[in-house]
Amino acid sequence: MFDSREVAKRASRGDPGAFRSIVEHTKDRLFRLACRLLGDHSEAEDALQDAYLKAHQALVGGGFSGEATLETWLYRIVTNSSMDTLRRRRARPARPLEASDELAPTDGLVAEARVALRELDEWLGDLPPEQRAVVVLRFVEGMTSGEAAEVLECSEGAVEQRLVRARAALRERERASAPRSTG
Amino acid sequence: MNTDDLELRAARLSRATESVAAPSDFADAVMTRVAQGASQGSAPNPIASVSFLERFRRGAPLAVAVAAMAAAAASFVAVDVELNEDAYSAFDEGDGAEVALLEEFE
Prior knowledge:
Strand content of chain B: under 5%
Helix content of chain A: over 70%
Order of helices and strands of chain B: HHHHHH
Number of strands of chain A: 0
Largest sheet of chain A: none
Order of helices and strands of chain A: HHHHHHHH
Oligomer: heterodimer
Shape of chain A: globular
Mean pLDDT of chain A: 89
Helix content of chain B: 55-70%
């Protein structure tokens, strides 16, 4: 049985086997989270690797206080790493689709999931990273406002406020892209 | 888009992506990078986002960078820093919200 508190303690003492078991136990869920936040499996892979590196350095350096559960703490690091990727993406011009972006089979990713990730990315692509993260955590990951607030290190009120803004932005974009009726 | 539309679409996309899993060699790749990182001995801030510092490089006022460093330091020692959403938003819009941001740290 995976005892996250005990394994985190061993990993913080530099036990590589313990850290590996953390990775093995959490990688699928966290990869799914990063994919949903980023809509791109390659970027998700990079963001998650960076997140695990930061987690390892923090564990060994005594940066994991244990106030949050190990899973919540990892969710937080992965979410921050993904939001940093989104900010970098917004700061550079959009990359045109390439042949390799088409629906070739990818390890761990079926075609239906790739289509859905692309739809997610296009749907939420215009939102600021903080609002996008709230939509994903609340309605795609299925967290409560309290859980999302813990991951994002903000108040539940801030989560709700970002949701209101995200809804308004999505509604506005839908209105702008709807075909105008001619009369 | 009303509430139901947003939640229904998100739920549909959630189900459609439920099968997503990390590549089979992912743990090996992470452990290789961990081993490389350990041999290099680097230790960046594990939690705080770098976005504030990136903004500073792009010309934000010095006071904002100081506040960002305070935020990074606070999160590193696991102090519960809670930023006001309005301060974030106004800061995003570049309308002098550094004052509001600094007030959050006082």
